[in-house]
Fold:
Amino acid sequence: MSQFAINLIFVIGSFTLYTGIAIWARARSTREFYIAGGNVHPTVNGMATAADWLSAASFISVAGLISVGYVNSSFIMGWTGGYVLLATLLAPYLRRFGTYTVPDFVGKRYVSRSARVVAVVCLIVISLTYVIGQMTGAGVAFARFLEVSSDVGLIISACVVFAYAVLGGMKGVTYTQVAQYVVLILAFTTPAIYLSLMMTGHFLPQSGLFGTHAESGLPLLQKLDEVVRDLGFRDYTADVSNKWNMFLFTLTLMVGTAGLPHIIIRFFTVPDIRDARRSAGWALVFIALFYTTVPALAGMSRLNLLETVYPHGTTQPALAYDERPDWFENWEKTGLLRWDDKNGDGRIQFYNDANADFAAGTAAERGWAGNELTVNNDILVLALPEIANMPMWVIGLMAAGGVAAALSTASGLLLAISSAVSHDLLKNTLMPNLSDEREMLFARLSMVGAIVIATWLGLNPPGFAAQTVALAFGMAAATLFPTITLGIFVKRINSKGAIAGMLAGAVTTVGYIFMYLGWFFIPGTNNFPNTPEFWVLGISPLSVGVIGAVVNFTVAALVSLATETPSQAVQDMVRRVRYPTPAPVATAGATR
Structure:
């Protein structure tokens, strides 16, 4: 059987599974469409939350980012830390509040339609910019494994999401995401275990990273450092030069994660506050299983790639282009791997020509005229089974896993948009007399509209993935997280303060990002080059979200103190959310 046929079986089989689950768990009421009826088991919800979070960016891109070295470990620390914030600061109290969506909480807590509408706008901007990467990631996976163009793959993905998300709502999406988590975690850990056994003899990749490289007898990390250093790259374990920016970036990812609306709404689906805490705990367990595997997979994949290009060692001639393996040719067709024979020797020189000392020294002595191999880091995970000559079924499983990761997060984001439009913008703002049946219809129509817009944005993205992700996390950190946190913990914050804070945080964050990445991401419209010497106080556009959050907190507090105090009913509501009145306990002799 051909590899294409095996890939097709895995991908179509997973699609059939997702659609079948959606039909079985289809939503029959608005409560089931928005919060799956509010009775999802915490373990199930934890697994669905993990799938909701482990997006195409996590599955496809994070290992590629970490393969560069310790400098990008902020992604894992920030994203995992965000769940700790969410579990301790937000999830239990939001569940006790009893709303359907994030804007619903904002509207009821601050007793303001204007605050609700501002929250809806922030949610749509966050979700739409974030969903672009998911749709694009699904297109990349299809482009390679089903041998279609990325645009066709993106459209297929949209059709699959339409089939199960529009029909099932949150109930269908929840149980579909459980299946998607199983698929993606098997697809991610199976090649990692296989590679760890090959390179170190360790079954667990987490221990293999700190084990011994079987071929050389050296510690794996030491061997990796030596190989990358021999080719002019910085050591894999090298320290970070700008710790201030790394600190701010990690905080932005933490706060942004805790403010992502498609993650927050998952905690409205469990029966009570205790189950909300348990859900967060289970989500951390399932996410940790993935993220503790990432550094090992990243380091081993990079070493495996370099040993493929230099099969006899970095001091010997590189692989001849005519002798390149099949996987090399397959990925060249996608455009994510390119070779340019700059010195005409027919061999694949792969090194860091940006390192001036190395280029003028070792590279010049060996007759190299520049780096000849361009490898998109996104292919390190997807191409790993082929690079390491793993069985064909592992490649098929990887195809299904990459698509599952993209679709799981895309469906959660699209559901968050749909719920905000139908429940918050229509039902609770523009059309308060809307019946449940009509609201359900508008919810499904909103989902269709969100899928159409997301597909169009995926086909015509406004910027690179890093740009759109920066905007999504920055906006979540600077707008929703402070507003929700203040709404739960500070009785004195009123609607004027909340609105002013969200607007101030959004303007600060978006303005700073646009100044360096281009206004509305239009090339050539940036005010300053996106290089460290031009950053204000050494803060990169990717790290500004936490600064926007500080601005939001400050403005919301100052405006609230300068204006009227919230009503006693609102203050009592906040106190009940934080400190519920315990039920009276009967004691012996109480009637005497």
